[in-house]
Amino acid sequence: MFRTRVHRNLSWISTNSSRTTTTHGQHYQYLQCSKLPTLYFQRSLPRLPIPLLENSCRRFLEATAPLLSPEEQTRTQETVERFRQGIGMELHAKLKNHDAANKHTSYISQPWFDMYLSDRAPLPLNYNPLLVMKSDSRKEYQNQVVRATNLIISSLRFWRSLQSDLLEPEVYHMNAKKSDTPSYRRWMKVAPKAFATYASYAFKAFPLDMSQYNRLFGTSRIPRIGKDELVQSPDSKHILVMRRGHMYAVNVLDSSGYIESPSVILGRLKAVLKLDADREAASVPLGVLTSGQRDEWAKSREQFVSNPKNADLLQSEVDAALFCVCLDGEEDGVFNEDRQEPLLKHLLAGKAQNRWFDKSISLLISADGTTAINFEHSWGDGVAVLRYFNELYKDTQRQPFVSTATVHTPAEGDLSNVRPINFEIDEATKAAVSEAYNKNASIVDSLDMNVLKYPHINKPTCKQYGLSPDSIIQLSFQLAYRQAYNGYVGSYESCSTSAFRHGRTETMRPCTNATQDFCEAILQPERSKPSAGELRAMIDKCSKVHGQLTKEAAMGQGFDRHLFALRHTAQKEGIPLPDLYETEAYQRINNNIISTSTLGSDALLAGSFGPVVRNGFGIGYSIQNDFAGAIVTTYKNQADGKVFIDSLEAAFDKICAVIQQSSSSKK
Prior knowledge:
Layout lengths: L25 H4 L23 H12 L5 H16 L1 H14 L8 H10 L11 E4 L5 H4 L1 H20 L7 E3 L2 H4 L2 H9 L5 H6 L3 E3 L11 E4 L6 E4 L5 E6 L2 E6 L10 H16 L16 H11 L3 H12 L4 E4 L13 H8 L12 E5 L5 E5 L6 H17 L19 E3 L6 H19 L1 E8 L4 H6 L4 H17 L5 E6 L8 E4 L4 H10 L9 H23 L5 H14 L10 H6 L4 E5 L5 E5 L8 E7 L4 E8 L5 H26 L1
Parallel strand pairs: 6-8, 8-9, 13-15, 15-17
Antiparallel strand pairs: 1-10, 1-16, 2-3, 4-5, 6-7, 7-11, 9-10, 12-18, 13-14, 17-18
Family: Belongs to the carnitine/choline acetyltransferase family.
Keywords: Acyltransferase, Fatty acid metabolism, Lipid metabolism, Transferase, Transport
GO biological process, one term: fatty acid beta-oxidation
């Protein structure tokens, strides 16, 4: 199954791995050698269901109720009922027919791609999220160029495993101790492939869609007027390395597609640093253009590639690169546990001189070795990226291939494998870069970021008191906003629908009648406030409602994507926009002032993204073993993140007090 051949670097032997292997051995070339093919379950995944129209209408009314006055609710109910009995039925039938004619995919997949690629907003802050990886506690592996080398090798091992169908299928195990076992894999191997997913369900193991994985590497978003496009170069053998605005194409696979030896890759990165040290920072950092408004970037690119040399270099060396590695300098900042915001803000959007935001994956590595992933979002969602992120961290922790003691293979002067990308810059491009830089700098300067680590709510605490961690955090966000701003607003929590073929995401609406009732009750004056036991019962009701909404969303039974697809159908068919989409209710619930996202990972140090509306809060949060954390982004003079963070801490305090008091009263 695996190819073996003599290699010019057979003298290199890994002494860091758990066993001694050559560079062309399975152990080095592949991250995993799964007994089940990577896409084993793909064919048998169920299709994403289209909810019943009456259910989506009911769920829409329930979700918007906390945001509306009684009079507004009545008007909304009338409009929704007309929609349900009239044009909504026609659009629903058209959507069902289109879905039936395209059984290879999901009803949301193409409209979702179109939505992402047609939006003209800049990618940083609006779309590209940030995941920051935990540092390596071993100093010999935390060095910038060493960590970059190990991350590149692990990325390539992941990619080659994926391409060779050797990466473990993505499966969500309800009880990993019982199902994530050799016995489970043996049973799955003999299950008929057409029914493998359903056989897996018997083990309470849920296979997930992996159709997005092939776009993790070798993919670029190309700006076009009106709508961008994604281009793929899966057979590329080089990566794009950026340093102080300069760009380099660095070969990391040999002519046969094997991963180059660690000493060779380390040497080539060191050659980049040497080349860069011998010249000034780029005076016209072309990457800044990728931070701009998409039509503006499309026009600049079109003019830029009218030069044949530029067109060839851009397409062959930049667009076709497997992924991007950005080696930042000391001037770009390092991680400070007590003051995380400056570096996190830089990694999220930066000043863009040393970025190429159009690449599917960019590894950002600070001077102190702090590592983050910034990814272009149109091609895929968090499930694929988080799998890659986790595997990357585990592999570099378990078996790093180089350290500060590793002797590198010199590559200075090897211009066939370390290629400075020298474009021909004209005055129009200089002007475009300058304009894009100023616009991005202004946007980044207007961004505010606040961080909260709250020690009294954590995984053990939630387990001790029988609490749903996610529900408690989301309830705290609602209470924080109600305390600070005396109201309720459109709130968004993303939920994956990857249990279905070509599923993307569904929206979970965490502002409910139950959370509203609790917030109003706990903020009552002491003399009229319900008892701790009664408030705890309300918390449990919030959790029950939250859990049901999450389950519905994950099973494709939310309402947001359905209404989105019906609207898309109307636009595609030239049908006038139905009145439902003009209602105050629809406008408010889609004005996501509180936009939240969480990723559970032992590898994650921090996660962040920009607000989705100008006066909103972008909240990346997580619950760890020793704290609950939130990173809140806002735009200055539009929303006050500090006020929200302070209110969130007070909300945590109130909820903790209720939990402890109600628990004490039961003893």
